[in-house]
Design brief:
The structure is a homodimer. The first copy, chain A, is of the alpha/beta class. Helices cover about 45% and strands about 15% of the residues of chain A. The structure holds adenosine-5'-triphosphate (2 copies) and magnesium ion (2 copies). One adenosine-5'-triphosphate sits at the interface of chains B and A.
């Protein structure tokens, strides 16, 4: 049974989707069977892999609300070894619908239960909030990967995110731990990026990945072609960063 | 009675807060009395103006839930002519609390009703979602200013935002119109930025501001000092862009 990794941060635009898509592809390229679940009503992870993707017949909305089993929603991505449960705007309704429902925080966990044994890693791309969708992802996850833009507002929100993760661990998912904090969009020419990196490594020793993702326009161009960076520009620094990140996670897994 | 302008886009990290803070300051510097309402539980607009701000005794949570009148929550910012209703994490509870409440979409509108006559413009900074908080802002607003990062995922979400604005206009606030679409973080060296700008001006003729905001590290440094760009680096291109934007809005207002 694989590990479920939620990719979460309530701060908007920090690189959650870019990390979910490109890390999932890099892991699959390592020969691991990977499932990516798009849990954001924006559906950006789904469109980031649109190239070669069949038209969805069921989405994460159907899975979360129990209307369909995960096997009905899973689609193969173009990258061999990678599958995706897509999302669309219907998912936004789930935020409201789940408010008055039994075990509302456990819906995703209950739906996935035995269905994900076939995959070695399951990544869940979360929306920029700490509402019902992100809480569902945190309750079903083994670990949380936190993309952190090397900027002030993103750093400011980190303490609140960590508190939320601690509360979910105490009340809903005792096994939940931090996979790591990933510094994204790092522009090494600016003082701000260095300051943020120093701050984070000081306050969260041992929890920040050695790999950092540089700001790279290729990463933001790739989604307009529906392609992950590995298929769009495998020689770019952005691509190398996600290949390195996959290695760092796999090496750590092999030598806990 | 002033105009209420909601600054909204469900896509995360597109420059909503940076626009709310710096446009509000630029308008106040033009001698207009301005109110900025922080309606994002992240409280970034509040910390972006932290320099010289007193400790809040009441927040937008109290105003939205009717616990306190707006006059109890309003604080003067360091920029003369600018006032702010601050936010903190308590506001996140309002998303859930409002779900089962009468006239849930009208809470902010009802709370502000006569209280904002003293200000010529009221700006409302929204969170990255289309939930209860953003809907409340759209229902009380006269117009919506849409910051749009010059990137693919942001462009993809624009149609959905425009649909939501149209639905709010049809069902809840017939007077709601578009103040304009503002291109942000424009890196003129990249093709992507030019393509996005061309697309948007083609699909939304007459609705895109002539002013665009360049990517400028000074804009992302300023919040770490709790200062708007006008006080942090008045000679930067980022600052000039928000001064120009204020002018563009005021000139248009004078010559409808
Ligand atoms: N390392 C990078 N270099 C340059 N651009 C990047 C990088 N990572 C992400 N981007 C771009 O920045 C924008 C924000 O990234 P992304 O959409 O992945 O963030 P997110 O956290 O998923 O946003 P949201 O909060 O809306 O879900 C996107 O347009 C993306 O293409
Ligand atoms: N023109 C710009 N140039 C460089 N950096 C910018 C610019 N505008 C905003 N930023 C930075 O980009 C990040 C995102 O901007 P901001 O927080 O204003 O977006 P937002 O839409 O309010 O995000 P959220 O969706 O989380 O509310 C911030 O770190 C900000 O300092
Ligand atoms: Mg995303
Ligand atoms: Mg914001």
């Amino acid at each position: 049974m694989g590990r479920i990794i939620a990719i979460a941060n309530q701060k908007g635009g920090v690189g959650k989707t870019t990390t979910a898509v490109n890390l999932a592809v890099s892991m699959a390229a390592n020969g691991k069977p990977i499932l990516l679940i798009d849990l954001d009503p924006q559906g950006n992870a789904t469109s980031g892999l649109a190239d070669g993707l069949a038209t969805p017949s069921a989405t994460s909305y159907h899975v979360l609300t129990g209307l369909k089993p995960p096997s009905d929603a899973v689609l193969p991505a173009k990258q061999p070894g990678l599958w995706i449960i897509p999302a669309n705007r219907d998912l936004a309704a789930a935020e409201v619908e789940l408010v008055n429902v039994e075990r509302r925080e456990f819906r995703l966990r209950d739906a996935l239960r035995d269905a994900v044994a076939a995959w070695e890693y399951v990544f869940v791309d979360c929306p920029p909030s700490l509402g019902m969708l992100t809480v569902n992802a945190l309750v079903c996850a083994d670990t949380v990967l936190v993309p952190l833009q090397a900027e002030y507002y993103a750093l400011e929100g980190l303490a609140h995110l960590m508190n939320t993760i601690r509360r979910v661990r105490q009340r809903l998912n005792p096994a939940l731990s931090i996979e790591g904090i990933l510094l994204t969009m790092v522009d090494s020419r600016t003082n701000l990026a260095h300051q943020v990196e120093q701050e984070v490594r000081k306050h969260f020793p041992g929890e920040v990945f050695a790999t950092t993702v540089p700001r790279s326009v290729k990463l933001s161009e790739a989604p307009s072609f529906g392609k992950p960076i590995l298929h769009y520009d495998p020689h770019s620094r952005g691509c190398q960063a996600y290949v390195d990140l996959a290695q760092e996670i796999l090496v750590r897994e092999a030598n806990p």
